[in-house]
Write a structure and sequence with these properties.
The complex is a heterodimer. By secondary structure, chain A is of the alpha+beta class. Chain A folds into three domains: about 100 residues, no CATH class; about 110 residues, no CATH class; about 170 residues, no CATH class. Helices cover about 50% and strands about 15% of the residues of chain A. Chain A has 16 helices and twelve strands. In chain A, the strands form three sheets. Chain A has a five-stranded antiparallel sheet, with helices on both faces. Chain A has a five-stranded antiparallel sheet with strand order 6-7-9-10-8, with helices on both faces. In chain A, strands 11-12 form a two-stranded antiparallel ribbon. In chain A, a hairpin with a 2-residue loop joins strand 11 and strand 12. In chain A, helix 10 crosses helix 12. The radius of gyration of chain A is 30 Å and the shape is elongated. Chain B has 15 helices and two strands. Chain B has a two-stranded antiparallel sheet. In chain B, helix 6 packs across helix 13. In chain B, strand 1 and strand 2 form a beta hairpin. Helices cover about 75% and strands about 0% of the residues of chain B. By secondary structure, chain B is mostly helical. The chains are: A alpha+beta, B mainly alpha. At the A-B interface, helix 15 of A face helix 6, helix 7 and helix 13 of B.
């Protein structure tokens, strides 16, 4: 035949693939040959599970009688992947797939090696009751964890790739039956128009698809708890899961979601109501206490009863500067302490908090750089900030505190009140994917998370 | 009716308890204030019912949309501007009143212009928000205020300082001919429902209006009127009560929380009314902003694709209110408020006939 010497299409493609990957040292191109059976393997050694490859591709190749048998066997493997384009194959190779050339055909198999699939204990949102394990850093394992807790045929998992350079897989999980179509579409279109080279954690996504260049409060909820994921899936929310990230993000999320701990569903009615009350009290206290102190000492000492006003004034004797500097000074040191104990290695944290909290606090009052009462206030503020269950919200509250302090410094008690209303308006004016962010719900949960009309 | 409708009505009722309305009423204490109040309840309820019924017929549409459909353009625009003017005066009265109050009782060291500016700063952010966000804010703040209102109510009705004899004395002046300014001032308490001219955009569903709901508003309004008129009399006596500049501040300062962290109820009261006056201004001026936005549709005020019209309106509001705050005295304020209430009540009948006209056109 005239074209005998010309390479077939398949060979050209295989060569192209090898050339594209060539300079790396961990690419392997291995021909297999026995009698009249022939095959070629192309893969990247460092992302493919060698033992599995041996077990499910190489060994059967030598054991099966003829090339037909091998072909039939390989094509019936469940981890065979679709072969759409050269570029797609190239991308899959980088993720841990193996290309097998058999006869005049290229077959693609997923034989990934994943070292990040250990399920970790809950770390960010620990609870006493409820599941103690969180997620892993591998997408397939995480999907498994979620599916194992939510057995419903309408649970849908869609995957896409984000990050122009890193091509990380992202799973969009929702319950087809309850999800709000508008929300889902908005999330998808925003994810598709995302133009970022590298996306590393799911929380990063929440910053990118926020609609606002500069935002203060989170409109998507980050969580590592599978029970929270399932709870929200059942409520019709969309869960985004990025490969390589041990946290999911849930959208839409409104203010009250951030104040809910999963234990609120597990405990006794009054017990959980009480802990909820404590949480809101903590939120309120950590927001207004610093501002209130400034307002009460510098603007309106007459507001509180005389004994209290006197004891505050008494404890400030000898403090050489106005109250707002005193508050700011102690608050900033408290924030530094918090920051430091997050960043420090675990072994040193204890020392830092002891030195910072105990020694600094006592010494500051003894040196009359701060009043006793402000130490109590800063302590109360620090503790009550951590009562808020979701980290991102408590960080946002941390920042809001300073705005209120500013308002109180400028206009006393009136400024504090107006500042609170101002913050409230800011929060009420946000929405999370079309859902009002700060709205009071009077109806029962079932009525609010309406079932989609079919 | 949607619960948000009650908030609109209720905020207006509460916000005017503190300053001009009780003053006007107490000034007419022996010239028919009580009969005017009773009349006002009926007139106010009727107005409330009419406005709720009218806007219920056009769910999701505010007055500007209806005007655009059923009225000639220039006439509609002129009328909308007129209404916007009336509403901005309503907001302004509350703003100036509260600035004076703050200056006198809470932050006497601060210059008046600074106090007004602080209020205006937060209000400007508020009125630029979406209509729905305004309502959510109103709802939340009102809910927070509710326990405090209840506390003050309980305190003021149970305190031994409240002399029922004074109240009985005031009751003796029931059989007198009503006075128009007392009537218009007490009717003003019921006019919160008229904010529907813009807020109806939020009410996209048809609601049922039952007699019970109207009665509930009547009950609330009656209670508020009774409290606002008789409690100061009961505390301070019938003689000379009209000479007090802020009857309710005096009244609340007679109350004490013996075991509270805050001993004088006055301060609780001031903070509460700061919040409620804020809501009232917010609602009124949001209406003004939206009305003016619907009138000024020119695309000339633009900067990098941002429509500057609302910001220009806010700027005008700033300038106007600061100038007026500087210019007015407390006496003038209550005098002008009284004129405004009188004028408003008259022009409301014009507004009602406008509703009737639109309804007829819509039907044909």
């Amino acid at each position: 035949m005239p074209f005998k010497n010309r390479k077939s299409d398949v060979e050209v493609e295989l060569e192209w693939l090898i050339n594209e990957l060539k300079p790396s040292s961990d690419i392997l191109h291995k021909p297999l040959r026995l009698d009249d059976k022939q095959a070629e393997l192309v893969y990247i050694k460092s992302v493919v599970d060698g033992a599995q490859l041996q077990q499910i591709v190489i060994k059967p190749f030598f054991e099966l009688a003829s090339e037909q048998h091998v072909e039939a066997y390989l094509k019936s493997l469940p981890n065979q992947q679709e072969f759409t384009s050269k570029e797609q194959v190239l991308l899959e190779l980088t993720k841990g797939s193996v290309v097998v050339k058999l006869k005049d055909e290229l077959l693609l198999f997923e034989i990934k090696k994943v070292n990040t699939d250990t399920v970790r204990e809950t770390n960010i949102e620990p609870t006493i009751m409820g599941p103690q394990y969180a997620l892993s850093e591998d997408l397939a394992t995480n999907l498994n964890l979620i599916r194992q807790r939510y057995h419903k045929p309408s649970l849908t998992v869609e995957t896409m790739e984000i990050g122009k350079k890193s091509n990380q897989s992202l799973a969009i999980i929702y319950d087809e039956e309850y999800v709000l179509d508008g929300v889902l579409e908005q999330i998808k279109s925003q994810l598709e128009s995302l133009d970022e080279p590298v996306v590393q954690t799911s929380t990063q996504i929440q910053r990118f698809i926020n609609n606002q260049k500069r935002s203060l409060i989170p409109i998507m909820m980050m969580t590592e708890r599978t029970d929270r994921v399932v709870y929200n899936l059942a409520g019709g929310k969309v869960v985004l899961l990025l490969d390589g990230s041990p946290t999911t993000i849930i959208a839409p999320a409104i203010f009250w979601d951030f104040m809910t701990s999963m234990e609120d569903n597990y405990g006794m009615y009054w017990v959980t109501k009480f802990s909820k009350f404590l949480r809101y009290l903590g939120l309120f206290v950590s927001l207004i206490l610093p501002g209130l102190y400034v307002a009460a000492t510098s603007f309106n000492p007459e507001v509180f009863r005389v004994e209290l006003a006197l004891s505050i004034a008494g404890s400030r004797i000898g403090v050489p500067y106005p109250s707002f500097i005193e508050v700011l000074f102690m608050l900033i040191f408290m924030e530094l302490l918090t920051e430091a104990s997050i960043r420090l290695p675990k072994a040193v944290t204890g020392t830092a908090t002891t030195v910072g909290g105990l020694i600094l606090g006592t010494a500051a009052t003894e040196a009359a750089l701060a009043s006793n009462i402000i130490i109590i206030i800063v302590g109360a503020v620090a503790i009550s900030t951590f009562v808020i269950p979701i980290n991102e919200m408590s960080f946002a509250i941390r920042f809001m505190r300073y705005l209120l302090l500013l308002a109180a410094t400028l206009a006393g008690l009136a400024g504090l009140t107006l500042g609170l209303i101002g913050l409230l308006m800011y929060v009420a004016n946000r929405d999370s994917f079309g859902e009002p962010y700060f709205k009071i719900f009077f109806k029962k949960k079932q009525a609010e998370t309406r079932v989609k009309p079919s | 009716m949607s619960r948000y409708f009650y908030y609109l009505v209720f905020v207006n009722m509460l916000a005017n308890v503190v300053a001009s309305v009780p003053k006007i009423l107490l000034a007419k204490k022996s010239e028919g204030a009580i009969v005017s109040m009773i009349l006002a309840i009926f007139i106010g309820l009727a107005l409330c019912y009419i406005v709720a019924r009218f806007f219920n017929a056009f769910p999701g549409q505010g007055l500007p949309e209806l005007m655009g459909k059923y009225m000639p353009g220039w006439f509609g625009k002129l009328l909308l501007l007129f209404i916007a003017g009336a509403w901005s005066v309503a907001g302004l009265i509350t703003l100036v009143t509260y600035s004076f109050l703050l200056k006198r009782f809470l932050t006497p060291d601060m210059p008046l212009v600074f106090i007004t500016s602080i209020l205006l700063f937060f209000i400007s952010y508020g009125i630029l928000m979406k209509t729905s966000s305004v309502l959510y804010t109103v709802e939340f703040v009102l809910l927070c205020c509710l326990p405090v209102i209840v506390l003050i109510m309980i305190k003021s009705y149970t305190t031994p300082e409240l002399e029922w004899d004074f109240i009985r004395e005031a009751m003796m002046h029931t059989y007198e001919l009503p006075s128009f300014s007392a009537l218009s001032a007490s009717t003003y308490l019921f006019l919160g429902g008229f904010n529907l001219i813009i807020f109806n955009r939020f009410f996209t569903k048809k609601h049922k209006i039952t007699i019970k709901q109207i009665l509930l508003i009547g009950l609330l309004g009656g209670g508020v009127l009774f409290t606002t008129y008789f409690i100061p009399i009961g505390m301070n006596g019938f003689e000379g009560i009209e000479k007090i500049a802020y009857p309710w501040i005096f009244t609340s300062d007679t109350l004490r929380l013996d075991l509270g962290v805050i001993e004088r109820i006055l301060f609780v009261f001031l903070i509460l009314y700061l919040a409620i006056s804020f809501l009232s201004i917010l609602i009124h001026w949001h209406v003004v902003l939206e009305l003016t936005k619907s009138v000024i549709t020119t695309k000339r005020f633009k900067f990098k694709d941002i429509n500057l019209t609302p910001y220009i309106i806010v700027g005008v509001i700033w300038l106007g209110s600061i100038q007026i705050t500087k210019y007015l005295t407390e006496y003038q304020l209550s005098l002008f408020s009284s004129y405004f209430f009188n004028l408003l009540l008259c022009s409301l009948f014009g507004l009602i006939s406008l509703f009737w006209f639109i309804l007829r056109r819509a039907k044909s």
